[in-house]
UniProtKB/TrEMBL annotation, chains A, B:
<protein>
    <submittedName>
        <fullName>TetR/AcrR family transcriptional regulator</fullName>
    </submittedName>
</protein>
<dbReference type="InterPro" id="IPR036271">
    <property type="entry name" value="Tet_transcr_reg_TetR-rel_C_sf"/>
</dbReference>
<dbReference type="InterPro" id="IPR011075">
    <property type="entry name" value="TetR_C"/>
</dbReference>
<feature type="domain" description="HTH tetR-type">
    <location>
        <begin position="6"/>
        <end position="66"/>
    </location>
</feature>
<keyword id="KW-0804">Transcription</keyword>
<dbReference type="InterPro" id="IPR009057">
    <property type="entry name" value="Homeodomain-like_sf"/>
</dbReference>
<dbReference type="Pfam" id="PF16925">
    <property type="entry name" value="TetR_C_13"/>
</dbReference>
<feature type="DNA-binding region" description="H-T-H motif">
    <location>
        <begin position="29"/>
        <end position="48"/>
    </location>
</feature>
<keyword id="KW-0238">DNA-binding</keyword>
<dbReference type="InterPro" id="IPR001647">
    <property type="entry name" value="HTH_TetR"/>
</dbReference>
<dbReference type="GO" id="GO:0003677">
    <property type="term" value="F:DNA binding"/>
</dbReference>
<dbReference type="Pfam" id="PF00440">
    <property type="entry name" value="TetR_N"/>
</dbReference>
<keyword id="KW-0805">Transcription regulation</keyword>
Length: 191, 191
DNA sequence: CCCATTCTAGAACGCTCATTCTAAAAAGGC
DNA sequence: GCCTTTTTAGAATGAGCGTTCTAGAATGGG
């Protein structure tokens, strides 16, 4: 055996994630990462590989965080309306000092056209979220909260599309009330 | 007098616009611009200023093009539903060989957080589009096509939000039918 | 204590970036 | 034909990029 790692891998990866989230892939330089992760340049390469691999790890961490919050905070909610509202508001209010908006949507815009691996990841991520919304709607129909007349497939796709829009606005607007109003209107289709 | 410009300023600016539209600001290098605009590096600086100024001109050209198409293709449509549908489909189908998606939405994601001038431009652009949708809805109410019960302000904000989502999906998906279905569902709120 | 490993430090690599330069060729008005 | 301007061409600048390097200090297990 030998000397142990002195930094918490997840903690420094989180720092990288926040940087990419805030500034995007291209605008985040290795020097920025060195400065904010507070470990040596060499340690970054040894631990995470090159910049692109580090980015993929950061994206993965972001997705895991979202998934955890969905499992813990959204799934237990009995009312479908409230669950979707909570899902949307998760993207509007960052619990800690994390950046506005969503790394997945940012990445979709910045890198999808230039990197097939990332394009697949984004596509899968979008599908997963849309499917989750679909399952919420289905649960709502079975519990009687929602009408049986609704076309859940189309509805899930449409609500998911609105969710993407909200994550763009969350990055570009600081008018929270406007976004909350949009959430209200979006949910009104369930009535 | 002296020698005249040999290139059409608008034609080469359009080339720059397409590059920024396709690749984003950071991923488009001056060398890329020199290669595709087919004029000398020096001529670019003399005619358009530095990279950022050139980008602002390209963004302006994009907005003008959108505005022209709205005036010519959308405004004459009598049915509000059809007008909004046409507006949305404009973003899905690029008439000529122009890139998928929307330079304004791309720029909102990439540059809003780092450049106040651009943030203001994007904000103004979003407001303008939302106002246009509002005016369409108002016209629909006055003509009797839409119910008087609808809250047009909230509705315009919500439809505009969906429009942003569609312009993200237009860049990241090539499943046109899925987007058309989303447009259907989005317009269903007018029924 | 020694060895293996990982940390730190900072220089160095080769490349690309945006921008500016010198220089000469082209073209229209006097 | 000269003057002015714009074109071309391509090199040069200085900074920053991602990545790798040499070198030494720290630390834990045998």
């Amino acid at each position: 055996m030998a000397r142990q790692k002195e930094f918490d891998e997840n903690r420094v990866l989180r720092k990288a994630m926040v940087l990419f989230w805030q500034n995007g892939y291209e605008k985040t330089s290795m020097q920025d990462l060195v400065n904010h992760m507070n470990i040596h340049r060499r340690s970054i390469y040894d631990t995470f590989g090159d910049k692109q691999t580090l980015f993929l790890r950061a994206l993965q961490l972001f997705e895991e965080n979202v998934e955890r919050r969905i499992q813990q905070q959204i799934k237990p909610i009995t009312s479908v309306r409230l669950a979707i509202r909570e899902l949307f508001e998760m993207a509007v209010y960052s619990n800690d000092g994390s950046p506005a908006g969503c790394l997945i949507v940012n990445t979709a815009i910045e890198l999808t056209a230039h990197n097939q691996e990332i394009a697949d990841r984004i596509s899968k991520s979008f599908s997963k979220t849309e499917t989750f919304i679909y399952e919420l709607l289905l649960r709502g129909q079975m519990s009687g909260e929602l009408s049986n007349q609704l076309d859940l497939g189309k509805l899930a796709a449409s609500i998911h599309n609105s969710f993407i829009g909200i994550r763009v606005l969350a990055k570009t607007t600081d008018d929270k009330e406007k976004i909350l109003n949009i959430i209200d209107s979006t949910l009104a289709v369930l009535d």
